Amino acid sequence: MKTRSTTILTVRHQGVVAMGGDGQVTVGNSIVKADSNKIRRLADGKVITGFAGSAADAFALLERFEAKLKDYPGNVPRAATELAKEWRTDRVLRRLEAMMAVVDAQHTLLLTGSGDVIQPTDGVLGIGSGGNYAVAAARALLVHSGLSATQIVRTALLIAAEIDIYTNQNIVVEEMACKS
After folding, report:
1. How many CB atoms lie within 10 A of CB 145?
2. Residue 25's closest CA among 3, 45, 42, 48?
3. Angle at 35 between CA 134 and CA 64, to 5 degrees
4. Model confidence over 126-151: pLDDT tens digits?
5. What CATH number is attached to the domain comprising 171?
């Protein structure tokens, strides 16, 4: 059975970066958990990560990313690039089915098993089954509302939950000050 889960969204707005995710985990056509937390703080709270995909695969990547952050302290893009290289070339890691969103005070990054490390131009990034819905909602809210980054993330995730069957309304949001 295929495990499907989550929507993760991050938004940079008005000096704050916020990342949020829903809590649903689905196996096959059944919801098996409604309150999973897929957002983690690393590097003494200076980095926030969110993951989508197989939970076991995501935790394996999270541990490796944390090790890379220790190898390259204060250099999130380098740690992300080194993880992406290892992920792409390692025979075991290549089979992992997950994606990661990573933010710090300066960067928003998408990491994939294809070796991608992508920084979105507008500071809005969504991953997971409802990621595109959440990004569309967040971009509209950025332009047409006076909401904070955290409020935009929460509202956009609730909109995605109304559309995507693999996303629920049990939202967890983390935020930190940012430089852009």
Report:
1. 11
2. 3
3. 75
4. 999 899 999 999 999 999 999 999 99
5. 3.60.20.10
